[in-house]
Amino acid sequence: MVKVEFPNLFQVVRPELNALETYLHDDLQEAREGVREVVSHLLAGGGKRVRPALVFLAARFGKDAQSPQIMKVAAATEMIHMATLIHDDILDEALLRRGVATVHTVWNRRVAILAGDYLFARALGLLAETRQPEATLIMSSVVRQMCDGEIQQNVAAMSGDLPTEADYLDRIGKKTALFLAESCRLGALMAGAEEWKQRVLYTFGWSMGLGFQIVDDLLDFTATSVAFGKVVGVDLRAGVLTLPLIHALLNSEEPEKTRLAKLAQSRGGGQSEWSELQSILGRSGSFAYAQNVAQRLVTEAVDSLGVLPANEAKEALLSMASYVVEREA
């Protein structure tokens, strides 16, 4: 796969994404002043708009890619994503998101929580406006599963137990991959695509989503805060063990295994301890292992698209898969 830069990924649906920005701003202008201010702060922070882009791209495999219902679904997916970011930043006590101050640091936790709830409610309202009950059912299930995954993650962090790789994959499936998979399926559904195409696009989104989250967790150890757009090491400092650390704890030899367990228990410690932890993970091959797992999953995503007809949307999805495993932020 040829390396691709993110800004070039979604050129085929750039008109739809530009229209989405206008749609989001116009729709949220109907909110009261305080809510508008908070949401405008989020919108001004930008974002990759990956989920609505997947909706628009998947719609290109249907009979009516111009259906007005597709925009409602795309906007709903972005609002739900924005809401989860607000709540995640509160849980992680994050100061930055995409290099911009997080909502709860600009206002407070109460305002941030309520703003997230507002976005969830508005998203479900948009889905109801499509008059497609399946769309509302699908996305409400996505939100429920994301909450399930988040609870699972935090309960595991409190217990201090070492999760298995299967536990980890189940968690990130609920927290990340399902949302991407259903964004693909909903785009195809709203455009009137055949069921088999919906299933193919769902499979692509699922495998690509798992790979995306594994790379994200890898970057939480290896990226700089400037490149990543948020503080690194957040997961471990919250007691959350991700694939690189899980692999190292299960496969390292003594005495590094014991030292690594102590570093994990202290949640990374200070800068010198954090550097030591990074060194151990590198020597144990755990960074390479996580990258290889992500690559395998993304290859599965790419292979799943083989049965779809060739078009610009398919090329964009393939380019996105390439980006997932090569990104540095």
Strand content: under 5%
Count of runs of 4 or more consecutive helical residues: 16
Can you name the CATH architecture?
Orthogonal Bundle
List the strand order in the largest sheet: 1-2
Unreliable spans: 225-229
The CATH C-level name is: Mainly Alpha
Q: Based on DSSP secondary structure assignment, what is the total number of beta strands?
A: 2
CATH topology: Farnesyl Diphosphate Synthase
Mean pLDDT: 89
What level of helicity do the residues show?
A: over 70%
Structural class, judged by helices and strands?
mainly alpha
What is the helix/strand order? HHHHEEHHHHHHHHHHHH
What best-fitting shape do the alpha-carbon axes yield?
globular
As for the number of domains, it is: 1
Main β-sheet description? 2 strands, antiparallel
- Rg: 20 Å
